[in-house]
Specification:
Layout lengths: L1 H8 L11 E5 L2 E5 L13 E3 L16 E9 L4 E6 L4 E3 L1 E2 L3 E2 L12 E5 L7 E16 L7 E11 L12 E4 L5 E8 L4 E5 H8 L12 E3 L16 H18 L2 H12 L1 H10 L1 H10 L9
Antiparallel strand pairs: 1-2, 3-4, 4-5, 6-15, 7-8, 9-10, 9-12, 10-11, 11-14, 12-13, 13-14
Amino acid sequence: MAKAVQDSHQSPGCDPIPGVTATPSGSLVTITGAQEIEYDVTTDVRVGQPTDRFCSICSACCDRRIGTVAAARLDLDAALIQLDPGLKYKAEIVDVGPISDTQPVKVTGVSVRKRGSASDPPLTQGDILALDLDGHSSDPDAGLFSRHYKGAFSITPGKFSTEGDSGSAILSFATNDIMGLLFAGSDTVTLATPIDRILTAFDIGVETAVAAGVVKTVPAGEGTSIAQPDATPLFTKALPARLEQMHREIAATEAGAELIVAVEHHTDEARRLVSINHRIATVWNRSTCNGGWKRP
């Protein structure tokens, strides 16, 4: 952990703060030159979509896991996710269509669009206003966290994005080429990181498609098999499919949809109770199916 703290201070692309040092020694790390510091350290690198909910083995239908964090860059405000082998996906964006290619940001005035998770409506259109911007961005809800960004571009009008849209792909309106990733905004402009900087930093490319609806499958990684042999009883293997079917049937009714929202809203609370309250954990393990609650 101490080494991780030092590495985060000296991570590629980040500008070290003058006079601040981080030196690990065994399980300890010594930081000098700073009046106040804040670190968020976690060993849980699982990623879910559309929410980070990871349920028990008896509730696979509500497990939202899609992969794990493989790398992150604070200077770009971006992370790389390794999708789980066997996961099916489409190289397209809802309401936008298939991704054609990537395009460097070279001039202002280009018409762009994005589909955000918080905007209403989600799909908005704007124009590139300025290039190669430097500055500081911060999140009032994230304590001391702030970062210095470089080489960003801005988009107008201000209503192009809203809080919660960070991570949205910025696409050329004319060609559906990805031009950047949204990371911040205000009442007047939206800020994005050029996609070529992100691809270079992570040494990756962008998956594309020539037509909508093309389903692709994440291949097995080195030393990983999509279909691992196991001794799971057949009735247990059939359980996730049956639960998924039940989930769809319940969600098809108005009352059922409300119930699902309530259950998912309290999943984290229930999980914490099962993990730390021995009496509740005992009841859970006696009443649930084989194995009880699956801890991370």
